[in-house]
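Throughout this review, each integer encodes one residue's backbone shape. One record appears below.

===
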Amino acid sequence: MEDKEQLLRTILRGFDGAVVAFSGGVDSSLLLSFAVEELGGRVLAATAVSETLPPGELDGARLVVRLLGARHRLLETAELSCPEFAANTPRRCYHCKRELFGRLREVARAAALAAVLDGTNADDARDWRPGRDAARELGVRSPLLEAGLTKEEIRALARRRGLPNWDKPAEPCLSSRIPYGTPITPPVLEQVRRAETYLKSFLPGPLRVRHHGELARLELGPAAWETASRRREEIHRALRELGYTYVTLDLAGYRPGSLNETI
């Protein structure tokens, strides 16, 4: 891991300044921390803000930026205005990233920063990631991936460096809760947002509310099962009030990217 860290530093030193696509997750946080060390004031963190942003993520991103002493820019994006994104095809993430990276390139040019960087890691390369196509098309670099750093190694480095989110579960955009082929609309996103906010108020560990029309399929980590079982009537009642007719618990539990299993 030490060799990979040194390679990461070498890669970053090769840029004449950079904009970091900063979600506030552990990957982009680690990338930003090294970028600040290697490039100093020639780094700008940029966070996209839209209806698809999970609750609490912006506050977490701001906390890390303050801790690292980095400059921070918020970009309002409008994914739902893109028909291809709203239609929710399996290429949804390509259209999202195409818009985001295009905006970040404009920011980089305006600030005279040479590169746009994202937090893709070595494990991501083995998953369904159409957004990677957009990154390649627009010349976005992925230093963590180029250094060969895995998610486990990234968490270990983040913990060693004192990042407060080193063990933070992955939190992709709310659109990832909606099966491919189901249109993404503001009411559906708000329904999912409110359901997850409610459940996170008392359930530990990672969780997802997968939206299947009238049915909410809950993916929970092992630590949450006992509490969810004990409070099942309350959970059912609360989610019915949010518009779901049926509420189910997925016996396979929480797993990132489960909706990609249909591809």
